[in-house]
Amino acid sequence: MTDENGAGVQRQSLSFSGPRLKFKANYQNIDSDFSRISDLSDADRAVMLDERGFTRSDFSLNFQATSDLNIDSYLYRSTNTDENQRLGQRKFNIAYSPKQGPKISTLHDTCSYIADSGDIESYTHNRLAIENSFSSLGGLCLGISTDTNTSQEGDDAPVDTRITEARMQSNPSAPISLIMSLAKTDIDSDTSEINGSFGVNWAINKNLKMSATVTNRSGDIKGAQRDRKFSLNGKIAKKLLIFNDVNVGSGINTANLMGRQTGCDNALKLKTGVIGNGSFLIDNSDKLNTTTGLYYTSRLMQYESDKNPQKWYHVSLLRQNITSATGSTAEKRNYTFDTRLSRQTSLAYNKHFGRDAINGDVSPVGGTTIKLKHVLSNKLTAGADFTSDFNEATEKRARIIGMGIAGELSNSAQFELYFGWSHLNEDSEKEDGNVFRVKFDHKISSDRYISLTAEKKSGVENTNTSTYEGDTTARLDFKTVFD
């Protein structure tokens, strides 16, 4: 291919492929003033822009000498007579992989980019690796390797990097598997680093698994660092005293850099069944906020009785202590009891404190609620309740007594009507008033919904999303699907 000025590009290739031998040779010459590179395909265009003005040739040879021995080589040479630049690379790779006995691989790779003024860039890379497997521990694999690299840019002094590594790994599918490695990195003669790691995976039984890993780095390249990871997950006991199906989910993940903790994400969860088909949960977690250096912590305990709706009573007890990511401490409590007085009548009691807020904080809002509900028909229920609310942040307290009905209309729309009397205390001032709640939710068609909510609250909760929003709110929503 030539342009209107006679400058052109020449490309030739020769290849051979046999059962054991594969050979390929390429030749390319691009005149420095060739102007038709934009007419080529995108893939060729990017390569030729970098190689314009160069004459290059490369040869690759792959020889499968035996079923265990493979020899691979690559030669590259490129020159730019206009700029007096030369680029060359030689790469040889030998791999010996018998079915039994040690496996050996070697690599020699050297590359130089030279101009009349001297080296622009060059490197020499050599690697030797030996690996052997044994029958111990279900299949133990040992390996050692040495990797040296000498690189140079311009007139800078050459940089020698040498990595020596030893590695041991057992069969990962065995009940117990181990992995250990030790590597030393030397840069020139005055900088070094040692990296070591040890890991174990243990399938204690079919339901319980443990994993642990420790990595350690010492030296003056990146600084000393130690990471630890541990996990234990699964069922630890089918029966333990009054408990059954005791399950654990735990994890430890910590990182220390130069004596300073830079990461922490620890968790411990125990969940078990108890007598009467109830459940008991312990959930503890610690997490480091690397930006602030503060720890988020959570300590939670919860008991729940049998959730079967046919049971005549249900109990739920929750306690949680929290340190938020901002460093503030808070607590959450939630105690619930409900019982069925008759087939149509039920009574529910709830005492709570603490409500989730932004940034992981907890609003100091709590209260007590007693609800009595009676089923009038399949689609209509009536109820009465007593609520005592308080907000420690605003020092507001309120008591509410109310009643209402809820049900389903003939068009399947859901509705609720509620009215109550409230008594609010704030800074020794007292205020009596009314509260109400109206809800209507209707599915007009399969893809259209309308919802209306109007409510007047006691004023204890400070959860409004807008500073202009008062205790009385109304909201109308319409949802549809557009094709």
Describe the structure.
This protein is an all-beta fold and 483 residues long. Among the domains are: 1-96; 116-223. It is 2% helix and 70% strand. It is built from one helix and 27 strands. The protein has one helix spanning 42-51, and strands at 9-17, 21-30, 55-64, 69-80, 85-96, 103-115, 118-134, 140-153, 159-169, 176-187, 191-205, 208-219, 225-240, 243-257, 260-274, 278-288, 295-304, 313-323, 329-340, 345-356, 362-377, 380-391, 396-408, 414-426, 429-445, 448-456, 472-480. It has a 27-stranded antiparallel β-sheet, with no helix packed on it. Strand 20 and strand 21 form a beta hairpin. The longest helix is centred in the N-terminal third of the chain and has 10 residues, at 42-51. The protein is elongated, with a radius of gyration of 37 Å. Residues 462-469 have low confidence and may be disordered.
